[in-house]
Amino acid sequence: MDAVNKMEVLKSYLETKGLKSTAQRDYIADTFFKSNTHISLDELLKKVKRKTPNIGYATVYRTMKLLTECGLAIARQFGDGQTRYENLPQGGHHDHIICIKCSKIAEFHNQKIEQLQMEAAKKLGFTVVNHKLELYGYCSECS
Amino acid sequence: MDAVNKMEVLKSYLETKGLKSTAQRDYIADTFFKSNTHISLDELLKKVKRKTPNIGYATVYRTMKLLTECGLAIARQFGDGQTRYENLPQGGHHDHIICIKCSKIAEFHNQKIEQLQMEAAKKLGFTVVNHKLELYGYCSECS
DNA sequence: ATTGAAAATGAAAGTTAATATCATTTAGCC
DNA sequence: GGCTAAATGATATTAACTTTCATTTTCAAT
Lengths: 143, 143
Prior knowledge:
2 copies of one chain form a homodimer.
Chain A: H1 3-17, H2 23-34, E1 38-40, H3 41-51, H4 57-69, E2 73-77, E3 83-87, E4 95-99, E5 105-108, H5 111-123, E6 127-138
Parallel strand pairs in A: 4-6
Antiparallel strand pairs in A: 1-3, 2-3, 4-5
Helix pairs in contact in A: 1-2, 2-3, 2-4, 3-4
The structure holds a DNA duplex (30 and 30 nucleotides).
């Protein structure tokens, strides 16, 4: 799903909820959808303010809350005390590795790990539908 | 590793760091080691205050920071805005698989998965010191 | 056992991020 | 265009975490 499609999903979500659409919210959402990192509210606000300096923190906060609510964003906490919002990746699911010193986040995907997960779950009688895998360590610059 | 062993690990950690041992810290640590849930600072403070009402929040905070530092506790955030501390389970590290219908939690451990994690991290220049793996799905009774 | 330096404590203050409030503005239906 | 509900932006509040500081305690060296 690309940014344009996501905007459409958002639009129809607003309609079903009887909410109004505004230039600010659209711009915040669009900026978020075009970002490819795990972005915090402050970072997103800064980005948005470049073109629209009068947008307030509260509006960014409320927009991200809305996007999280309708599944277009995922709120994540990596332990540095800040909530980061994950834009649903184009290539589907991925896992994270987080530097415990500088908080840098890298992404990876390993099919074999996922297969082993399924097998481990099966042994316990479970059927996996989703998972969360986070590695914590030191990045090349901090080790 | 049981509570007694953990106290010993803590003690030797304090020694190597040149830190002093105190009744308060020992009691907080012991209380934590004997807990089996993911406990928050407030909860732990409350527990500790039952027998030692004059212990302060800051001391609990500092003790848990210390335990996290030396690997005897793991700080986790489940998205409710509170940090919870996980007591290292007796059987060593394990991962969780959670039933999304009945919330049953099973535990498993797979050495091969951990190895693949290390490898994936290495490719990205990271050194792993810790990880978090949670599978979500249906247990045998709910599937 | 006494002493002195370094660390620990507890209370309180400071910090940070998240959330709520409120007066004003805006969207969208009539 | 006018009306009503929602949105906005600034600010205030809250909650959790972290630091500060005066006092107390530990422990190693007498």
